[in-house]
Amino acid sequence: MVFSILENEYWYGGYVYGSHVQPYHAASEAEIDLRRNDSTNQAVPFFVSTKGRYLWCEEGFLLHFGGGNITIDRDVELREGYVNLKGAYLAACKEHFPFSDVRLSDEFFKNPVYNSWIELTFWQNEKDILSYADHILENGMPAGVLMIDDGWSDYYGKWAFSREKFPHAEEMLKTLHSKGFSVMLWICPYITPDTLQYRQARDMDILIKNPDGKPLITEWWNGYSAALDLSAPAAVEWLDEQLEALRAIGVDGFKFDGADVLYYPDDIVTSGGVTPNEMARLWCAYAEKYPFNELRVAFKAGGMSLMQRLCDKPHNWGEEGIMALLPDTLMQGITGHPFGSPDMIGGGEYMNFQENSDNLDQELFNRHSEIACLLPVMQFSAAPWRVLGQDSYEKILKSVKLRERYMPRILELAHHAAQTGEPIARYMAYEFPEGGYEGINDQFMLGEDILVAPICEKGRTSRNVAVPKGKWRFLGTVIESEGAVMELTPEDGEPIVLEKCD
């Protein structure tokens, strides 16, 4: 299938990861292979354009931008006539990934989320979890959702608290709840081989298999494991039984990690005859039942009731680090994943903190917090009071306070997204289709009336902001723009925020 790119037409979609190279246009040369989502984030068989067009397929495809054309290796739906980016996105959302039963907890949007990973890595334990929670409150930060990350159980597939690490798990959960925290646990769809749970799952025939009929043993980032076949009803029941036992003692929900397509060979044998892409989607579908959930990898999960985190970002200023946060978050929104978290503040790759824990870039940490504070979900892991000096930590508190100020609006937009699918954080081109903003991905609209422009470059104290025509309130002063680019300076610890006055 081949069709021409229109004059001044820009296309967004496909992969969330690496979105800084988008949008694509008539001069672009790019190949996008969606037949397997081998990225570490969300992917969709969907592209949408600023000229009111979109293309959709129920399966992945190979697409090429080149020579002013779009070439696809199979027939897909090409719909036209929706005027602009917003019109085309909303039409596609209604037709292909409607938001009909979103049950995510409001707690994700009210206060920061805290994750124990960077502080404790694989040494999760009751004493230090309680200490982490106490330090959050003692350092002037609000209680919120607290995720206990990988290492709380004895091994993968045995989803029960390690009695050695968590001797009084139920009491710990009650204590955390009494302090105002909701508690989530990290899980994955993998099972450590040669364990009781592995043998049980093998005998129940609920594991993904190789073509020879033996259980698949896949290599992932934490070693070698068997993988649960989520297309088998008995596998879902087996996992339900374990997770509901945790819910019964006070666990509020789960961080559903893993299920990356890149760890499933093409020739997997499953009960439902599903592809690796479909297996990743089944993990998402399973997670939807929990109002407290977090996902990272997805295929065709637009419209689902999921909080979706960006993949771990390195602690640097580059296009895979802090410069990726806004482009990837905006891409989440325009592909049907509005409830996004721009990774853990400072970056989620724990090795960066082990190698540089006494020499972190405090400016970068602050800028990440300023970027995240007005995005859908703000998430900490490395304890800012530990890794930052006092002046830098005061800036963190300012960004948290700014979120508190705008929290009612963020919550309102989250509820609106749950009903309509509209992004919470929106491309400038989404709200201002005539402004020539198609290539801008380092500032965004929070809804239709709040413009947010964080500083993303090292050493800068001000930045250029594309301000659409009209009157805007900035730091208590009303400024009038004819659509100009203005150099603005934010308050310490805050992004630039302009509120529309007309």
TrEMBL record:
Residues covered by the Glycosyl hydrolase family 31 C-terminal domain: 421-475
Keyword Nucleus listed: no
Enzyme Commission designation: 3.2.1.177
CDD domains: GH31_NET37 (cd06592)
Glycoside hydrolase family 31 TIM barrel domain: residues covered: 122-260
GO molecular-function terms, A-Z: alpha-D-xyloside xylohydrolase
GO biological process: carbohydrate metabolic process
Keywords assigned: Glycosidase, Hydrolase
Membrane-traversing stretches: none
Keyword Hydrolase applies: yes
Enzyme class, broadest EC rank: hydrolase
Homology family: Belongs to the glycosyl hydrolase 31 family.
Protein name, per record: Alpha-xylosidase
Gene expressing this chain: yicI_2
